[in-house]
Amino acid sequence: MSIGIEHFLTVGAILFAIGLMVALSKRNAVGVLMGVELMLNAVNLTLLAFSRFSVSERPITGQTFVVFVLTVAAAEAAVALALAVSVYRNRETVDVDQINLLKS
Amino acid sequence: MTTSFLATDNWWDLRDLSNLSGAILDALDKIAPQGVVYVAAPIIGFIGAFALFTLLSQLFIGVLGERKIIGRIQSRYGPNRVGPYGVLQPIADVLKLLTKEALTPSTADRLIMYSAPVVFVMPAILVWAVIPFGPNMIIADIPISLVYYLAVTSIPVLVTFMAGWSQDNKYSLFGSMRVVAMAISYEVPLVVSLLAIVVLTETLSLKEMVLWQDTYNIWLLLVQPLVLIIFFICASAELNRTPTDIAEAESEIVAGYLTEYSGMKWGLFYGMDIGYALAASAFAATVFFGGWTLFGLEEWVPPWIIFILKVWAFYFLFIWTRGTLPRLRIDQLMAFSWKYMLPIALVNLLVVCTERILWTDAFDGDKPFVYLFAIVNIALAIALVVGWARFVGYRPERTPSRPRLVREAGGYIPVSSVSGEGR
Amino acid sequence: MEGFGVTVAFWILAAFTLVAAAGVMVARNLLHAVLFLVLTFLGIAGFFVLLSAEFLAMAQVIIYVGAIAVLILFAILLTPRSGRQNSETRFALPATLLAICLAAVFIFVIFDADWSEVEEDPSLAASELGEALVSTWVVPFEIASVLLTAALVGAIMLVRSPEEEAEDALA
Question: Sign of the CA dihedral B155, B158, B159, B160?
Fold first, then answer.
């Protein structure tokens, strides 16, 4: 059987759904970040699948987009983890259910 | 491109080992079903590059040669009891490690602790896939082999971290965190300095770099001496070799991330340490020392023999610094990487980019200008290293700032006034 | 993409990546979940190679496995032991249902759309990526470097303890 674009997009979609599941349901803040990273990886995979299979006059654009998503994901992981450590220092917990000071 | 004109295409011509492997694969293609050749080719490459070359080099050059040479540097004989001149020492070591009792702490994470040595071996094997032993003797001739090398050597960092926290031991965790902090901060000057090589040779492929050195008849170590220095120091740091081996600093943190490992698990870590050092030596031999070329000698001598001798020569440099230099402190190491190596690497990159633009635009890519650039770069390297050390250097008579606990306790009264106090 | 090797590689990588991603969800220990995440990253790198973007595959391994996974492990080690059970909040069931519905919608759209596919592999070299980044896309490239500097400085500032700030304060 030949591998077409649908195969890669399906893997990307399922990975995105799993990442969403992890991000919405984990109790630890770092666990939520892991879900976000999974979602970003799924997005990268989808972008590259489109870059490889779509008809375009500048096929390198998909790969440049992935470079930027990779960069932003790295920066965001660093800041999110710094936030998690900082929240732990102030609130003694990284449980997302207990960081609810703004709740009425 | 000067491939050996004396080497023929016969399968028994050992000057070009790809004839032999090509003949085996052709025979397999006729006998076996469709996809088996794809599986057999990496296995042949694995046997050739890893099992025959790396394993034997690890055992005899890495274990025995290193201990004997370090012994001689320290005015003593190395191992010389087991067999004539200690030649059977590595075999004795392997037998000892295989039969040793492998203790595991009861609260350790079993799965991670057992799988960490196995995962540690994988990159050491994978990296040999892109090292060119000769004109056609690369297992995987990909156009981005430099980035592949960087990617594969960034995996052991994670593995040492895994090994460290799985042991449920404070000292292992300290050791592995220090190792990881050091490794990631030495990766940055390494990559920035290798960028200069990429700018100069216009290619990311190791084979093309060897061919570049062959075309211009000059080794990249002469054109970019600063990159060789930075690569050597950064590679020593990544490989946890003295003077940067805070990982196994027995006097400080027991044995770092190797504390609870014993028997063959420790043996795998130790052996692959040497394996990674050989891989870094092979990388340096390819990029800086001309790979399998030796100004035309490769048409008479088999190129893979030239390459292997260069790998061993560079590995001797690693052994030499290990025997000679004392260990550095962790804060000295961090300062060295970020404050000295990274700026020098960036200045070097700037200079190389300028030279490259001048070369292509003003001089139209003439060959002799590479020699001019080589002279300029050597002078610049000496000037930068000496100048940076003199003007930005670490003055040993400057004491470090006061530690925090002391400040909270209200200060300390020195026993005798030492020279050069104050910051 | 035709070929026996491509098919085998795709199915093995797909199974590996999805099982590793599921492992992130169901692992009982947070550190094990991070290791499953690392396996997912490696699987995605394999997919990148399959899609003829080898430079991005290596960049993915260097950045994600070499740096981000280490960062996540450090952050886990700096946070308390009690949070390391990788347990779920009370939104676990709605989140699962939402994820399943989302995946269903995506898969329906994927198989229902009429994708126009290229005939042959564009197979772009890494040098083309470099040229694109400094010629057509130079403004996002420079903004990305500013973003990384801002993230670097911000992360360091966030994690400083008050004593370290007092040490470096002026006067």
Answer: positive
The number of C-alpha atoms within 13 Å of B71 and in the hemisphere containing its C-beta is: 13
Q: Which chain B residues in 356-375 lie under 8 Å from chain C, judged by CB atoms?
A: none
Q: How many pairs of residues across A and C have Cβ atoms under 8 Å apart?
A: 249
Type and span of the H or E element at B116: helix B110-126
Q: Give Cα separations from B34 to B20, B43, B383, C47 (angstroms).
A: 21, 16, 60, 23
Which of C54, C57, C65 is facing B155, going by the closest CB pair? C65
C38/B112 touch (CB, cutoff 8 Å), yes or no: no
Chains B and C touch (3+ CB pairs under 8 A): yes
CATH number for region A5-91: 1.10.287.3510
Return d(Cα B86, Cα B66) in angstroms, integer. 12
Put simply, the answer to whether B184 touches C67 (Cβ < 8 Å) is: yes
Give the closest-approach CA distance of B301 to chain C in angstroms. Answer: 35
List chain A domain ranges. 5-91
pTM of the model: 0.89
Residue range B254-288, pLDDT digits in tens: 666 777 787 888 888 888 888 999 999 999 999 99
Q: Which amino acid is at B95?
A: L
Dihedral (CA of A92, A96, A98, A100) sign:
positive
Angle (CA) B309-B313-B318 rounded to 5° is: 145
| Residue B24 pLDDT grade (very low, low, confident, very high; cuts 50, 70, 90) | confident
